[in-house]
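Hi support team,

I submitted a single chain yesterday and got back a structure, but I'm not sure I'm reading the token output correctly. Could someone confirm the output below corresponds to the sequence I sent? I've pasted both exactly as they appear in my results page.

Thanks,
R.
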Amino acid sequence: MKLFRRGKAAAKTEPTTAAQDSLSILCQGDEELHYAMSYLVYLKPEEQIALIGATELQVQNAAEAIERGDRTTAIVDYETAARIELYRGNKENVRMYLEKARGLQDGDGRERLSTLLSNLEKVMAIAKRYYHRGDAPSPTDGGTSEQMVAVTS
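Hi R., thanks for writing in. Yes, this is the structure output for that exact sequence:
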């Protein structure tokens, strides 16, 4: 009896959720935008926003963090405010909070925020479809990639 078997190595794949697949499809192959948006959208916005609190609280926390010299916390709070406003569809507030976060950020984070800001119209449209994907076909409910792309056009 063999306790340890050497078998074929299983192909390693990164687990994905239906939401990630939908976001990827909605970004229509734009890897940079998909990467940036994957940091911005919530998987369960109603639940997450209820736990996080109001935008105003996040902005207040960010201002207090800046006063303390805690840039990292301020960045997180401004990005959180932008996420909440993205879900609400408020483009100007999304722009304002992402710009504030970008002003404090450096490196990869700054590039990610710049990508979002330079594509804000597209980001808002994708987020609208992503959050209201009950209106659109998805790979998990029988929709095809082609249908998802057609919905975003």
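A quick pointer for reading it: Residues 71-88 form the longest helix (18 residues). Let us know if anything else looks off.

Best,
Support desk
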